Amino acid sequence: MNETMAHRGPDSEGTLVDGPVGLAVRRLSIIDLEGGDQPIGNEDRRVQVVQNGEIYNYRELRAELERRGHRFSTRSDTEVLVHLYEERGPRFFVDALRGMFAVALWDSRERRLVLARDRFGIKPLHYRIAGPTLSFGSELKALLSVPGFEREVDLDALEAFLAFNSIPAPLTIFSGVRKLPPGHTLIWEGREPQVARYARPRPVAAEDGVVAERYGTDHHELVIRPDAAELLPRLVEAFDEPFADSSKVALSGEGGDELFGGYYTYVADQIAPRLAPAARALRGVVERLPSSTAKVSLDYKAKRFVRGAHLPPLERHHAWKEIFSSDARAELVARRRDGISNPSICIAPATRRPRGPSRWHASRTSTSASTSWTTCW
Predict the structure, then answer these.
(1) C-alpha distances in Å from residue 271, one per residue of 258, 305, 322
(2) For the chain, which end, N or C, has fewer CB atoms within 10 Å of the first or last residue's CB respectively?
């Protein structure tokens, strides 16, 4: 499993074996280049952690923890995780973290595994439970190498893909694998894993032009014309599961439109309660408007608006964002309850290995007498 992540962590690798538990990590060095190799433990090595991501407020957390008597052996942001866990416990240590991260922490004394994902889900984390076996990883392809992995397609995930061009958490394209949702932890102590929310993103108000004025940015346009035929195989390898959403980003893809309400559907949500009666009355007229071939044209938005304005908030937003209608999705998915066989989709493991941020994965196998973990980043 570790080898499948080599392209995401080319700088170093590390391992930990603790009886039936094994951790392995692939690292892309960012902070503390020489001393930050993982796994990283606390003073007595009872608690070990591996992380994909970055803790932005680690300096403040480190200073607080040192005042409380914790001793650090590295300058890495990852080390604050083990000491914060000691201080606050498995359910509350993530509350203090500010950053983008997927974390796996092993407490050898309590025989406890803790997984955690950042508030906005910037860093991915997948997991699979199969009987006594728990596997997890940053990429689905890492889990494909787990013995006995079944590639049965999740029909709910397939329908979600047809509706939204992507597969939202906790679903994945495979019925046996789930995404840990943003702002959640998973705690395993030898019984059924407990998944719980620790944070919920809240909207943030921003004044027009505040970013450009604050940083004095000088914007330049760069036109990129990639060779789609050349890039398509690499994109398929990178995504692991069906994905069709198009994106336009500046500087980075941190979900600014979602966080600051930048999509036109958010405006529609605000005006729908006032205009719903008129939209319902005029729907017949609006539906007869000529269809434009332009992207997100006025007639397209008007037709979408009148079809969903009268619905409750969640249902109308769903109606405005969906790609295929519910009837079309039902026909395409051909659900088993209709007596039609499950569609067959083949998703092969990656053969190329593009460079990129470090990722990790893990698996636990069990015999009648013992349990073992193998974890790779």
Answers:
(1) 18, 10, 19
(2) N
**Whole-model pTM over 0.85:** no
Output b/e per residue, 13-44; b: 16+ Cβ within 10 A: bbebebeebbbbbbbbeeeeeeebbbbbbbee
Select from 342, 204, 301, 302 the least CA-distant residue to 260.
204
Q: Does residue 375 register a pLDDT over 60?
A: no
Residues near 170 by beta carbon (within 8 Å), at least 6 away in sequence: 178, 179, 180, 181
Domain with residues 2-200+351-376, CATH architecture: 4-Layer Sandwich (3.60)
**Pick from 116, 111, 72: nearest CA to 92:** 116
Residues 62 and 352: their CA atoms lie apart, in Å, by: 39
Average pLDDT for the chain: 80
In the three-class reduction of DSSP (H, G, I as helix; E, B as strand; rest coil), residue 22 is classed as: strand
C-beta separation of 124 from 102 below 8 A: yes
- Rounded to an integer, what distance in angstroms lies between the CA atom of residue 260 and that of residue 208? 11
Burial of 192: CB neighbours in 10 Å, binned 0-12, 13-18, 19+: exposed
- Name the CA radius of gyration of the chain, rounded: 23
Please state, in angstroms and as integers, the Cα–Cα distance from residue 126 to each residue in 43, 82, 96, 177, 360, following that order: 30, 22, 23, 7, 10
CA 165 to chain CA centroid, Å, is: 15
In the Cβ-directed half-sphere of 113, how many Cα atoms lie within 13 Å?
Answer: 29
Contact 142, 359 (CB under 8 A): yes
Tokens representing 352? 């190329």
2: its two tokens: 């570790």
Which ranges in the chain belong to alpha helices (H)?
58-67, 79-88, 140-143, 155-164, 210-215, 228-239, 256-260, 264-287, 298-308, 313-321, 326-333
Distance CA 267, CA 261 (A): 8
Give whole-number Cα distances, 256 to 113, 202, 250, 252, 253, in Å. Answer: 32, 13, 10, 9, 7
- Give residue-wise pLDDT tens across range 144-176: 988 899 999 999 999 999 988 889 999 999 999
Give the type of residue at 255: G
Residue ranges of the domains in the chain? 2-200+351-376, 260-344
Three-state secondary structure call for residue 68:
coil
Residue 198 carries which DSSP code?
-
